[in-house]
Design goal:
By secondary structure, this protein is α/β, with parallel strands linked by helices. It has one domain: TIM Barrel, CATH 3.20.20. 35% of the residues lie in helices and 12% in strands. The protein has 10 helices and 10 strands. Helix 4 packs parallel to helix 5. The radius of gyration is 18 Å and the shape is globular. The protein starts with 7 loop residues before the first strand and ends in an 18-residue tail after the last helix. 43% of the residues are buried.
Length: 298
């Protein structure tokens, strides 16, 4: 029997600075952001260099706040043939916004990115995967604005986010021909979905486990993986925040010095592409795209 060709997986970057993570919002006011030393441009440029060395195309889910202050960075992302996508304007979780405020934030960010990058922005990822069972109305808002896909529901149990009952793979949350939701990768253990698509888990667990889990998704499920990370995760020299909780300190700073080497191995061990090229071109064909039961929630 002829061996199936390797799948192309989606490499994604959430372009935000170290002080903009949700875990720091209790400690760092948004009013202070412009006063802090920015490192997102230099870190994202390092990522662009690494991707260029490996011949990898990726999707950059970018904050409007970042684009507004570093427009040349946005143009470098686009010029390097990566996909430019939206991460909202100022990293406010959807659970903290009204539908009107969410519409305004997402529209502002999309328009800003398109004006600077000169390309259509088709994808959206919510801050901290903050769309779930309690606010599925946000998916209708995204479709109304004109996004073609979202990557905002994480089908796991977590203390800050998650919708474990959601499908593991791409699905249509609104209607059969509507917005496509593309979750970050998980692997299945009995009835439990466990994360394997990046973030702190990639820094916490041995690389061999991450490689095994992603290969399992490719080979056993025959589905493309979705992996994500942040520019600050390759920056062990970033300013350290004082007064934060032990859990927050552990999650944010763990193994930052090892991240770039692990990422280099990951880029070599798998085949990578953009969300748009993998999912939008095949959503009506190879991919199974069930709809999501809304359970009467609005």
């Amino acid at each position: 029997m002829e061996k199936a060709p390797p799948l192309i997986n989606a490499m994604t970057v959430d372009v935000e600075d170290y002080f903009q993570v949700s875990a720091f919002e209790r400690y760092i006011s948004r009013d202070e952001w412009d006063k802090l030393p920015g490192r997102v441009e230099r870190n994202t440029d390092r990522i662009l260099e690494l991707f260029a060395e490996r011949g990898v195309s990726a999707t950059f889910f970018t904050l409007g706040w970042v684009a507004e202050r570093y427009p040349e960075l946005i143009r470098r992302i686009v010029d390097a043939k990566h996909e430019l996508a939206c991460h909202g304007y100022s990293h406010v979780r959807v659970t903290q916004q009204t539908p009107k405020a969410f519409h305004s934030d997402a529209t502002r960010a999309k328009d800003l990115l398109e004006n600077i990058g000169g390309v259509e922005v088709k994808g959206y990822r919510a801050a901290s995967y903050s769309i779930g069972a309690s606010n599925l109305w946000a998916l209708d808002v995204l479709e109304d604005i004109g996004f073609l896909y979202s990557s905002s529901i994480y089908p796991v149990r977590h203390d800050l986010y998650g919708m474990p009952e959601a499908p593991r793979f791409a699905f249509r949350p609104c209607k059969p021909d509507g917005l496509l939701e593309i979750p970050v990768s998980t692997w299945q253990l009995a009835d439990t979905k466990l994360p394997c698509g990046g973030g702190g888990y990639f820094r916490l667990l041995p690389y061999t486990f991450s490689k095994w889990a992603l290969m399992r998704v490719n080979q056993r499920d025959r589905q493309p993986c979705v992996f994500y990370f942040h520019p600050w995760e390759i920056d062990p020299d970033q300013p350290r925040q004082s007064g934060i909780s032990v859990k927050t300190r552990f999650r944010h700073y763990l193994n930052l010095s090892r991240m770039k080497d692990r990422l280099s191995r990951l880029l070599q061990d798998f085949h990578w592409g953009t969300m748009e090229s993998i999912f939008l071109s095949s959503a009506s064909g190879r991919l199974s795209t069930p709809t999501l039961e809304r359970s009467g929630k609005t």
